[in-house]
Automatic annotation (TrEMBL), chain A:
Gamma chains make up the fetal hemoglobin F, in combination with alpha chains. Residues 3-147 form the Globin domain. The keyword Transport applies. The keyword Iron-sulfur does not apply. Keywords: Heme, Iron, Metal-binding, Oxygen transport, Transport. Heterotetramer of two alpha chains and two gamma chains in fetal hemoglobin (Hb F). GO terms for cellular component: blood microparticle; haptoglobin-hemoglobin complex; hemoglobin complex. GO terms for biological process: hydrogen peroxide catabolic process. Belongs to the globin family. It comes from the Eukaryota. This is Globin domain-containing protein. One of its GO terms (molecular function) is oxygen binding.
TrEMBL record, chain B:
CDD domains: Hb-alpha-like (cd08927). The gene is HBM. This is Hemoglobin subunit mu. One of its GO terms (cellular component) is hemoglobin complex. Residues 1-141 form the Globin domain. PROSITE patterns: GLOBIN.
Length: 147, 141
């Protein structure tokens, strides 16, 4: 679906190499849950999500965020076949987790803002464009086996 | 709709932008056109040549309007009424584009403020800008 140019791939992989998934994972999922509180509906078992600091400090949020970004990191190695990479996860999110695919778009956008926080001026419009393409591709792949 | 804390967060971030409306606005537009090329259709003269002076000028105008919204957070409808008319009658920007602009706005703030751009600020600004977009598209039909 998405065609990643050589420039896109370079922007995506070089930036990702500098990302600490341990930190960025919790930050990304935490920000999603704070900025879009309705997304908390999937995480009843995570314990306290009662305030921004509770969410950002919640170890289950951090662990799950790391899991999500680790999976994303794998996808980055295979940008030309996101649908293949995320096929099983798509089925899981549809059949077992019942996650509205809109949530994938929200998470992707939040990840982009976290990357902007981390990289500042280096996160140029062109780099942002490559990354928005990336997260849109992931969201689409994750929704591709919904039925 | 906006809590006292949210209002404080919004004002705090605005204080960092005030005085730099043109620069922030130009970058906002540049990101919008680069990331979401379909939006260029709404700015034909601006996006064709992407002349720095024109981007700064239009960016300044857009961010000045955001600044006015910040000053009137409690009564956006009244403060933005002329702009709402403009968008409904003249500009007619499809409402689906406002989230795209808001995403670019978030990235502008995040990339400039970096560690200072707390999760609370991001949440308050997303809520605020979404409210502005609602008001700007409210008179469409």
């Amino acid at each position: 679906m998405s065609n990643f140019t050589a420039e896109d791939k370079a922007a995506i992989t070089s930036l990702w190499a500098k990302v600490n998934v341990e930190d960025a994972g919790g930050e990304t999922l935490g920000r999603l849950l704070v900025v879009y509180p309705w997304t908390q509906r999937f995480f009843d078992s995570f314990g306290s999500l009662s305030s921004p600091s509770a969410i950002m400090g919640n170890p289950k949020v951090k662990a799950h965020g790391v899991k999500v970004l680790t999976s994303l990191g794998e996808a980055i190695k295979n940008l030309d076949d996101l649908k293949g990479t995320f096929g099983q996860l798509s089925e899981l999110h549809c059949d077992k987790l019942h996650v509205d695919p809109e949530n994938f778009r929200l998470l992707g956008n939040v990840l982009v803002t976290v990357l902007a926080v981390l990289h500042g001026k280096e996160f140029t419009p062109e780099v942002q464009a490559s990354w928005q393409k990336m997260v849109a591709g992931v969201a689409s792949a994750l929704g591709s086996r919904y039925h | 709709m906006l809590s006292a804390q949210e209002r404080a967060q919004i004002a705090q971030v605005w204080d960092l932008i005030a005085g730099h409306e043109a620069q922030f606005g130009a970058e906002l537009l540049l990101r919008l056109f680069t990331v979401y090329p379909s939006t260029k259709g709404y700015f034909p003269h601006l996006s064709a040549c992407q002349d720095a002076a024109q981007l700064l000028s239009h960016g300044q105008r857009m961010l000045a309007a955001v600044g006015a919204a910040v000053q009137h957070m409690d009564n956006l409808r009244a403060a933005l009424s002329p702009l709402a008319d403009l968008h409904a009658l003249v500009l007619r920007v499809d409402p689906a584009n406002f989230p795209l602009l808001i995403q670019c706005f978030q990235v502008v703030l995040a990339s400039h403020l970096q560690d200072e751009y707390t999760v609370e600020m991001q949440a308050a600004w997303d809520k605020f800008l979404t409210g502005v977009a609602v008001v700007l598209t409210e008179k469409y039909r």
